[in-house]
């Protein structure tokens, strides 16, 4: 068989030259797009890259557009214009490819090297640019200039999961990273935190072990991005210091609704230093303006398949829509005494929190994320955080986890980013002048002048000189180190692995407890080894008897006795996510219509007026329709409006076909995909409103406005108004059965 190309008459040299634009005899282009060469559009305002300065602090005059595609013509990497990039240079149209094809070789060689190693942990992430505005309230305890009153500092924030590979899903049960790069005038400050305020381990030397246990099994490389497997539970039940962190993971905190609705924590205790050198110990907190909100487990699982990029999309969409997410940075403060304890809590133990009721979080500034990255690789992938990126006024403590991190971050970037010059990458460049004596190395992009990168010297005018306290030097706080013997050991207070886990459990509401018990049941139930399940139950017995009994009953295993005395600490209400009211900005409301032409402008406008996002769902596409019954799944919506009486289902989608209900009489006429949408939304605690005959769908699946969070409405505006009231509580919690101490 001949291809079209082969059927063309081949007429020697003339044919071979014909497709060179402008060459004698060249045919005019037969396609309408692209038209003629033109300068590309400038980046959208929210796509401009970080302000760039050279490694020596001078403005480069180069913004993003200078290093990306520019100009109307395709060129090689060396700037030579190309006339064809779709055909290799061959000895005749059917002949072998010639080695001399430098364009082919350049194109493929570059492609062959496009990937860099993914992060050894926190491989999957999403990021955004923003600004941090300081209230000045921290100025009395730190000299950090970016925490002075009114200071505005550009930031870049990367959120991540910990265990999954770069291509894994967003909504898996896991800890989330919350890493912020502050480009301050005094140098870069990185606050490399998580959405959980404690960590698995107390000493960095165990980090490779906990990660080996959490990552997929080394033989089959499964399961991906999961903690529900034997090696994870083997580790966390043998290293019981992990109990508290694991309990956070099993709680709703392990499956956030959105990056925008997560708290962030610096985890370790930091030391702040004021202008006189006085020190205060602090723990950093990020408090989301939209409140802390989570998915429910079934929703998280469905989302992993339906939209694995759910969190990434949510963040980017919200920023693009102008719903800029905000967090307040706050600090808990503690006196810097010799013991470094507060109310009996060891501040150097990263598996412990200080309840907010004992040390309130004091707001010190506001973070707003207002611009999406222009290029995922250049920014989100190449950003390199480091716990040791500190500015004057912020210092570290002796937390053994933190100390190990101070070594690890630079080290890992050298492999990941191919050498020691990663601070020169645009996203990593400080906005403060750089005058270092670091030279050469792979991917060096600075052209350093001068002959004397050492000091003192007499050749480069003696430069650079050393700064002092009065000229902005970073000076470590001169903390006393008590005389001690070298040991591989930890303080006795580090042996308490359960009391704060119990405090957390006692602070949870009934539905939160139910979710925790279900999560342990699922995760331990996925383990193959009975010994690991039994050890897991022993850990639970030391948290709470009822939790342990519930999970044991589900696993069909005996209930062990606790091995520690169960104290009854006061609950910390701040740990619960339920019972507060939050803004509804950026929440997604699905409006189900039965005819693509149906007018739902009143409902749409009401959703928009409330600062939320309306998505119209119709049987088929059409003007004003964003989702069809084929593309809509419940997980995308925080609430549903059923607008209009249902029409007969399309062939193959009757409820009988989908076996949605046994009561086939009542439901055969309604599209089974809509029935699934509504039943899932109901099961996941989402608010539902119906008007204009939409209640027929509710009736078909057995719901009425007597059910919690299901409302009948007079019209679109009324429906949305009622939904807003329900959405402020995030979910309809009354639908979850009161269980486990509720
Ligand atoms: Fe990390 N961690 N970590 N970590 N971590 C990394 O650095 C490490 C820990 C955190 O979005 C790595 O650039 C050690 C605690 C975040 O790019 C690596 C220990 C907390 C991110 C590393 C810890 C974190 C990382 C991998 C035990 C919360 C993602 C890639 C002592 C306070 C940053 C990289 C981003 C990334 C080491 C424990 C947060 C290997 C040795 C505790 C948010 O350097």
Automatic annotation (TrEMBL):
CDD domains: GATase1_catalase. GO terms for molecular function: catalase activity. Residues 1-64 are annotated as: Disordered. Its cofactor is heme. Its EC number is 1.11.1.6. InterPro entries: Catalase (IPR018028), Catalase_AS (IPR024708), Catalase_clade2 (IPR024712), Catalase_clade2_helical (IPR043156), Catalase_core (IPR011614), Catalase_haem_BS (IPR002226), Catalase_immune_responsive (IPR010582), Catalase_large_C (IPR041399). Keywords: Heme, Hydrogen peroxide, Iron, Metal-binding, Oxidoreductase, Peroxidase. It comes from the Bacteria. Residues 75-463 form the Catalase core domain. The keyword Iron applies. Residues 49-61 have a biased composition (Polar residues). The keyword Heme applies. It catalyses: 2 H2O2 = O2 + 2 H2O. Belongs to the catalase family. HPII subfamily. Decomposes hydrogen peroxide into water and oxygen; serves to protect cells from the toxic effects of hydrogen peroxide. This is Catalase. The lineage of its organism: Bacteria, Bacillati, Actinomycetota, Actinomycetes, Kitasatosporales.
